[in-house]
Amino acid sequence: MVSYENCKRCGYCLYTCPSYKALGFKESSSPRGRLQLLEMLNRNVMKVSLEYIKRMYTCTLCNKCGKICVSGINVADEIRKARIRLIDEGYLVSPVIDEMATRLRNKGFVAGEPEPIQAKDAEVIYYPGCVVKNFAQDYGKSDYKIIASFLSHDARTFMPVCGGGLISEAGYEALGDISLRRLKSSLENLDFGRIVTSCPICLVRLEKIVGRDRVSHMTEVIVELEIKYRKRFRSKIAYFKPCYLPDERNKTLEMLEQMPGVEPIELKETGCCGGGGGVTYFAHEDSARKIAELMMIEAMSMGADIIVAPCPVGYLNLKSVEGLGKPKVLSPAQIVEKAASRKLLWVKL
Amino acid sequence: MPISSDVYKELVKELEDDKVSTDELELLCYSYDSSPITGKPDAIVWPETMEDVIKIIDIAKEKQIPLIPRGSGTSIEGSAVPEKGGIVVHMARMRNFTVKAENGYVKAEAGCLVDEIKQSAADMIFPLATVYTLPKTVGGIISEEYSCIQGLGGIVENVERIRVATPEKGIIDVSRDSSPSVRDIVGSKGTLGIIIDVTLRLRNVTGKVGFHAEYGTVEEASKASRLLSDVSGIINMEIIDQKTVSFEYKLKGWPEPVGQAFIIAEFMEDVTSRIMEIVSKVQPIQYQLYEEEPAGVWSFRDSLFTSICKQNKFIMRCRVRIPKNSLPEFFRGVERISGAYRLGIGIYGNALNCEFYPTIVAKMEAGEVERAIRARTKIIDLAVQMNGKVDVVQRPEWRQWIALGYSTEDIERLVRIKRSWDPTGIMNPGKV
Asked: Radius of gyration of chain A from Cα atoms?
């Protein structure tokens, strides 16, 4: 692992960074700036401050910088480590995130009422994740409709406890591990075929527990179903690659290509919704929104009617900058609802 | 020294809150660029319009506060770092540009990325595009006179106009024919004023053949490069030494290069027969012609810097220009410095204007950084010696200019213009 000390200050990372561009081109909000802050902290040139903490949490961990870094530094991992150090040293990093950690520790969920969703054995289980469960129920409803209509009428929604993904990314690594173990033990006695989720962080964590073959991202399921779409559904749909969704699990483009009237447009320039897996979205909503605004502007400039968000955090963040004359933000399942030639089941979640 | 709260309030009043910062964390982040030089500013400003720049200059002039223009902070000479505190003027938010491909020019604000213009200019060649432009800004390339596509005339020949904001003369529009001219602004490192925008030429040029060769000795490569530079239609040519190439080979798992020096070149005419004549005159160990995809010759060069950085924890670069016929002597001199300071030093650079980037590499073991700083000084001294001005160096800050091929007459002219445009010396003080 190449550490931040290897930074050559070449500046190649600057313009890959969504937060650098969205937050006014301030060096401290750039990858190079953040790495220099780590170095200066390490050399005692400066101390931890609220501004330092903010810089560590306005990074979305998209790692576009890391991919281009001439020294091979995985900048996102360096920021993750910095976050873990802050938590380990007892710093409060954000009122919202810290509150989420407390709730998770005490009640098993980061937000909302701790209402575990238990399920009986089923062939297909839908795991919404905390963001869908508490903040984007419409996202989950559409997911479940697709699953119930096309995949398995007996599908169950299941969320006995939070898997701790978001909180782990925020630096509460130990708490995240405990949550993952809790989730694992709650799955042990359940007999199921596969789990479906839209949450990329949940997907990666569920994979660790049940294995890659038994958990699917919603876009994988949609593609697999080979749904028949109406030819009259015509739209220019902008898509991006969510930071936390591994490329090989993201079938958004394939999904759009299955729709005859749809023209997919890749959002390469921004490529980051600003949500940061939920951490930036909840810790610094204003910064997350500014990054989402950049993506919205790019989508508009490309003439998109819709932006598809295969990640619930991305969905929420982009929705916060939706508006008149701007592309509509929809989940993959919501697009399928609009475009499918068959009526979908009415479901109560 | 921190700026007073009155100055801060005045800046905020004139520019708005979000365009000014005296936050300690931000100041620390602006205390470096890509050079080993550091210096902490007292404030940062992010102008978004020419009017913002004028207001900044007016306030700084009244209070005699140094101003340090900054693009992406990639100077390897410390140009973007304050020597004596002051206000860093970060031009990144001024990035509008208009490409007029049919007329063959682009007008770009100083903060525009060269790469973005390159992409927008489609088939036209943008002569400011060096092999490795990311993340350089238009203002930065011009202020530093970075080597660009020399075969198309270098920076001066391809800049039509520059608009500069100066402390004493306000906004000045210079062209190639005016006095002072574009020539005087290019390479001035922000010591004369703040570049607002630039009008640049675009050229409708397509490469026809690329050439890549490995030579047994630096002398042979130097001789070959001199012959190749006379071939009509040359777009660009670089020379890279064995040490630098060995990083690339090592990363790829190839055996150590045999040749002492490598040439990469691209031509806009079909000059294959002329190249073959030169090959027979000065025989390389091996060579390759790129006729189907001439620009592909640069893919080797593109990854060099990454190869160096991935394999070394620490690098320190400098930039020099040397007389063409001194090339072998310079390479040998750097090799001696490398031995004397027990550090690896690779050299690569433009063979047309002989601008080179000696790159010192280290693993960050004890004492290496200090030796690297001394080695860097020695390399600059070597270039100064080769440019023949050792006995007339009057001020230490002129060393770097002379190492870049400036004559004392050039520097004195720069100083005269500075006395007229910036008599109290607030523009990037300490740099000239």
From this structure: 20
Question: Is the Cα torsion angle B191, B192, B196, B199 positive or negative in sign?
Answer: negative
Burial (CB count within 10 angstroms: exposed 0-12, middle 13-18, buried 19+), residue B17: exposed
pLDDT digit string, tens, across residues A140-193: 999 999 999 888 888 888 888 899 999 999 999 999 999 999 999 988 888 889
| 3-state SS assignment for residue A340 | strand
Asked casually if ipTM beats, i.e. exceeds, 0.85, the reply is yes
Nearest to B29 among A6, A12, A28 (CB): A28
Interface check for A12 against chain B (CB to CB < 8 A): the answer is yes
DSSP string computed for B348-370: EEETTTTEE--EEEE---TTHHH
What does the angle CA B422 – CA B424 – CA B429 come to, to the nearest 5 degrees?
A: 80
Q: Which residues pair with B100 in a beta bridge?
A: B105
Give the bridge partners for B356, in sequence order: B320, B349
Query: Residue-wise over B330-355: b if at least 16 C-beta within 10 A, else e?
Result: bbebbbebbeebebbbbbbbbbbbbb
Tokens of B89: 């003027």
Residues of chain B with C-beta less than 8 angstroms from the C-beta of A14: 72, 135
Q: How far apart are CA A210 and CA A194, in angstroms?
A: 9
CA distance B254 to chain A (A): 20
- Cα–Cα separations (whole angstroms), residue A271 to A13, A223, B164, B342: 15, 22, 35, 45
Residue B349 to residue A123: CA distance in whole angstroms: 64
Number of other residues whose CB lies within 10 A of the CB of residue B310: 18
Q: Identify the residue whose tokens are 């710093």.
A: A91
CA distance B101 to chain A (A): 21
pLDDT one digit per residue (tens) for chain B, 432 residues: 678 889 999 999 999 889 999 999 999 999 999 998 999 999 999 999 999 999 999 999 999 999 999 999 999 989 999 998 999 999 999 999 998 878 889 999 999 998 888 888 777 777 766 556 668 899 999 999 887 777 787 888 889 999 999 999 999 999 999 999 999 999 999 999 999 999 998 887 778 899 999 999 999 999 999 999 999 889 889 999 999 999 999 988 999 999 999 999 999 888 899 999 999 999 999 999 998 888 888 888 888 889 999 999 999 999 999 998 999 999 999 999 999 999 999 999 999 999 999 999 988 888 999 999 999 999 999 999 998 766 556 677 788 888 998 888 899 999 999 999 999 999 999 887
Q: Cα(B273)–Cα(B36) distance, rounded to whole angstroms? A: 45
Is residue B34 within 8 A of residue A14, CB to CB? The reply is no
Output the six-digit token pair for B31.
């205390």
Instruction: Fill in the DSSP letter of residue A134.
Output: H
Q: Which amino acid is at B41?
A: P
Task: Check residue A343 and report its DSSP letter.
Answer: P
Say if the Cβ atoms of A9 and B26 lie within 8 Å: no
Torsion, Cα A280 A284 A287 A291, to 10 degrees, reads 30
Nearest to A229 by CA among A148, A336, A109: A336
Give yes or no for A102 touching B (CB within 8 A).
Answer: no
Angle at B270 between CA B264 and CA B276, to 5 degrees: 60
Whether residue A49 lies within 8 A of chain B, CB to CB, comes out as yes
For residue B71, which residues of chain A lie inside 8 Å, CB to CB? none
Question: CB distance from A135 to chain B under 8 Å?
Answer: no
Question: Side-chain half-sphere of A149: how many Cα atoms within 13 Å?
Answer: 23
Q: Look at residues B379, B414, B376 and name the one whose alpha carbon lies nearest to residue B395.
A: B414
Q: How far is CA A238 from CA A246, A281, B120, B202, in A?
A: 19, 21, 21, 33
CA B39 to chain centre: 20
3-state secondary structure of B321: strand
Distance between CA atoms of B358 and B195, rounded to whole angstroms? 28
